[in-house]
Amino acid sequence: MDDTMRRTSFSDMSCSIARSLEQIGEWWTLLIIREAFFGTRRFGAFQANLGIAPNVLTQRLQDLVAHGILEITATSENGRAMDYALTDKGRDLFPIIVALVQWGDQHAAAPEGPPVRIVERRSGEDIAPVALRSSKGRPLGLHDVTVAPGPGATPQQIAYFERLRQRQAEKAAARENGPRAPAKE
């Protein structure tokens, strides 16, 4: 990779999204993971199903193995034929893949409609949309949640979250007070 193609590493950032993108944020990576969820195991099958260049596929597979998302198992006596399988860490990406599929079906589907349905194996019924829920099971939307500092928050992040909390409190107070109707005479 030449210097013009090099990108900034996110591995040291104090942000779970950035650190996740360090592992799964490359162009082809989620498509390779999707194929692994579909049951693809061999290099040639990944290449054929995705139409990806062999050198790019080699690098992405090596990265996924290095990050513990895929594991290699030799399937021949000489060790030259290998299968790639999702690890527990890789399988934990399933809700993310499903959420991306569902988002794409709603906002980026081809004119003919979604190319894939995700169905329950036992019943054959479409699965429900991925949704956020409270610890008590209540559905949550964007306006039902906020961010708060976690145990790994830096002092700068703690100060940022405090400013954010103050702005949210001010907005909530303004909504509660709302525009006042003119007094009746």
Structure description:
- There is one protein chain.
- The chain has 185 residues and is mostly helical.
- The protein contains seven helices and four strands, in the order ααααββααββα.
- The strands form two sheets. It has a two-stranded antiparallel ribbon with strand order 1-2. A two-stranded antiparallel ribbon has the order 3-4.
- A hairpin with a 7-residue loop joins β1 (70-74) and β2.
- The longest helix has 23 residues, at 155-177.
Quaternary state of this entry equals single chain
Total beta-strand segments? 4
Element pattern in H and E: HHHHEEHHEEH
Average per-residue pLDDT, rounded, comes to: 90
Shape designation: extended
Estimate percent helicity: 40-55%
Structural category is mainly alpha
Going across the biggest sheet, name each strand in turn.
Answer: 1-2
Radius of gyration: 23 Å
Task: Report the biggest beta sheet as strand number plus sense, adding barrel if it closes.
Answer: 2 strands, antiparallel
Amino- and carboxy-terminal Cα gap: 76 Å
Beta-strand content bin: 5-15%
Number of helices: 7
* Poorly predicted runs of 5 or more residues: none
Question: Which terms summarize this structure?
Answer:
two-stranded antiparallel sheet, mainly alpha
